[in-house]
Write a structure and sequence with these properties.
Shape of chain A: globular
Strand order of the largest sheet of chain A: 1-3-2
Helix content of chain A: 55-70%
Strand content of chain A: under 5%
Oligomer: homodimer
Number of helices of chain A: 20
Number of strands of chain A: 3
Radius of gyration of chain A: 23 Å
Structural class of chain A: mainly alpha
Largest sheet of chain A: 3 strands, mixed
Distance between the termini of chain A: 64 Å
Amino acid sequence: MAMEHLARLKTRLGEIDDLQRAAQVLSWDQSTYMPARGGAGRARQLATLGSLAHRLLTEPEVARMLAEAEAEVEAEGLPSDHADVVLLRVARHDRERAVRVPRALMEEIALATALAYDTWVAARSSDDFAAFAPHLQKNIDLTLRKTEHLGYDRHPYDALLEDNEPGMTTERLRSLFDDLRAGVTPLLEAIVAHADQVDDSVLYREYDEQAQLRFSEDVVRRFGYDFSRGRLDLTVHPFATSFGHGDVRITTRVSPTFLQMALMGTMHEAGHGLYEQNFAPELARTPLAHGSSGGVHESQSRLWENVVGRRRDVWDYLFPLAQQAFPEQLGDAEAETLYRAFNKVTPSLIRVEADEVTYNLHTMLRFELENDLLEGRLAVADLPEAWNAAMQRHLGVTPSTNTEGVLQDVHWSIGYFAGFPSYTVGNVLSVQFYDAAARAIPSIPGDLAAGRFDTLLNWLRENVYRHGRTYQPDALAERVTGSPITAEPYLRYLREKYGALYGVEAASAPPLPRQGEGGEGRA
Amino acid sequence: MAMEHLARLKTRLGEIDDLQRAAQVLSWDQSTYMPARGGAGRARQLATLGSLAHRLLTEPEVARMLAEAEAEVEAEGLPSDHADVVLLRVARHDRERAVRVPRALMEEIALATALAYDTWVAARSSDDFAAFAPHLQKNIDLTLRKTEHLGYDRHPYDALLEDNEPGMTTERLRSLFDDLRAGVTPLLEAIVAHADQVDDSVLYREYDEQAQLRFSEDVVRRFGYDFSRGRLDLTVHPFATSFGHGDVRITTRVSPTFLQMALMGTMHEAGHGLYEQNFAPELARTPLAHGSSGGVHESQSRLWENVVGRRRDVWDYLFPLAQQAFPEQLGDAEAETLYRAFNKVTPSLIRVEADEVTYNLHTMLRFELENDLLEGRLAVADLPEAWNAAMQRHLGVTPSTNTEGVLQDVHWSIGYFAGFPSYTVGNVLSVQFYDAAARAIPSIPGDLAAGRFDTLLNWLRENVYRHGRTYQPDALAERVTGSPITAEPYLRYLREKYGALYGVEAASAPPLPRQGEGGEGRA
């Protein structure tokens, strides 16, 4: 017997997906081609699409559809990993979270964050934290109210993590960051003492912008990003976005005097794009056609940008292509020159410019501060000082302005807390997944060095990409790598790669000191 | 007292508008930047947006909202031309038409026309009318069923006209076409006898595509098209589209060996764009933020493309700019060279390439044939022969294939009947409006010749554009020009302009023979 209730539910979920993808098209356009004065109308259109999608998911009729479809599926005795059972589980999860937050609170948050964002833009450009402070306080208060509706056991942060990193907790993150810091700190100290080992001046020559875009496009096409189902456009803050299985787009930005920006940025977004392009087609128009989590998504951007794109022998393959693209600028260079330049490590003030070694220290700092803010251990007024002290403590640098300090990230201004850990989950998983691939298919390193990226891509497609949101991050990591999310492979990767690069062999970690919950772990 | 029912209705109408504009964004993207394989997902997203917008308009709740809002407005005693009264009248009109056609029939039409369109694309490329014929028959049958639901007094065509040209009837169109034919035929004969008067070879040199686009953009910016609220992109079949008051886009195409295509096409779409950019801002997100009709919309594309863009003294102003843009190609030319080339008259097979003199003969032919098809006087199997005979009769040319004959237009394949007359209403009104402007502000001709396009634009904004859909076409024409839609100004314009251009002065019209309804008027 056909499962007609399930079919009705799928129709509804398909409509919701259509609305969300339509909103993605509007957002992509807003960030690429929209004329200067299109913003006001666009904001209203996006609000309507979002509100209709929310309505289509939360109206009481859908609770009935779900229950009836669940009964049908149970009557059929389908196993718990059957696609329809997984779909119903995810749909119920999404709906239950969506109905928990009252509409009035959502609207209050939308209004407050719109105002806070505008204030932040101005405050950042005039280095005026005091102007932004009351809006940040308001965003914290509203976020705490939201977490009360969402519910949590120990930390309000846990309630927020559930959307970005389902299954992840504040406690586990604390332990993950402790491990990372314990491993990175001695390595970083050794690198800083040998900073003169790497010269990246080759990246700062004059590179024609069109040639950079063509080269970037060429490289990610070789990685396997499918331009018949995607495209590359320019924007201010690069991103990847999907309008469905046949249309997954990436964006980049380009500097005429810094080769790294467009190339590494394009590789990064292509990693996101490869994930989305390789969902199983049958997931299309369902809530499973998304990444497992923000962190798993980021693991793929970091895998293709860093683990592949900044790999020594991959540059033996890419370098002749780069030399063809930029014959004048790279005439006197070698593969090794570019490899070293792209992997220069420098403790710096700005997260988005951070290298593989220091990146997680930036996210750790934000993770600690936003927990302190949400749990009342830190007052908004004291935030800049706490930020600067933590920067000095972890990275040995101190911002001279709040613009290059606490005001640098957009996240808190738009009420987006608990988002930073996903970058670190992504860094860690990028190596965990790559190592698993190379264990499973020993030819992968050689294939990469020969420009045969499809061996790795096919393995990732089969093991990670095609499942979309079927598995939660830890379950996926267990299934694919034999272990849940863990820092050790990433730390080993850093030690080997940067030990060799900076001539600081075997900078091994001291025993890892574990810290108790809520302790002032950063002292 | 605040009119809360009216406010609720306006909220609903705003949401419907947001969905429709979102669909416009998706369609624009589909025609400009969408990757090759994005079509299937996009079609589903557009179907969902369309179906939700339809649902939001037709659900019974909206009938109550309307009635309650009307009661409020009546209680306030607002005059019949008050903005809220007009809005309610239009909203009721749109809703009543939307509920008349059963959902099942709409879906049947959507399915059949999608199939018919695909068949037409193939049939046109293989010159195979027989393959297309059954689909055309199906589209005619479904259209007739739709007209039964929509209702009409005399002709099924009238029911269809109501959407494109509200207030227009088959009878009036017949009379309008009779007048045009009577005026054009002797003029065209005289022109053909003097065809050697105009040499357009200057247009067929090699023109750099980027330079053409820059020049086209420059010209329409001078016309007053606002690029802070718009943009120009490349596409295959150019169009203009609006996502709201702050974002009205135009598209064009460009040939490296034909100067007319990009330039005149851009002027044409900019005319549509100027109309949409100059709706009163307070019409935004209401059903009044549209043109009065397809024909009135076309009148503005034709006014800026033809009446302004092909005007002799305007080329005194534009020519030095063109020469700067194309110094090599136009080094030996003069303003008069380009003016004459852009106004060459040739009876030809293809409507979209037709000049100002012959264009209405093409639309007349389609108007007659589609009426004959809908009223059963012509069988689909006999259509190609009837088409070719009519081409020979009216234009003196006969297609050698159906591809350059009856298969040339997309309209019937997508079930779009009664659309062609709008092109002619547009041609006729373009001159009617321009004449009214020049009567009201005698400096306009001199201003145009000096590149001061804002005098004309401001007059059009005040008298035509800002009203959006407030007035129906005839009411608007009466109000602005003192006369309903009529052929005489257009015929006088043609006689004067082309009489001078071809040296065939005073080719005056014979007395106009009127034909009875349903007569075989083309014999």
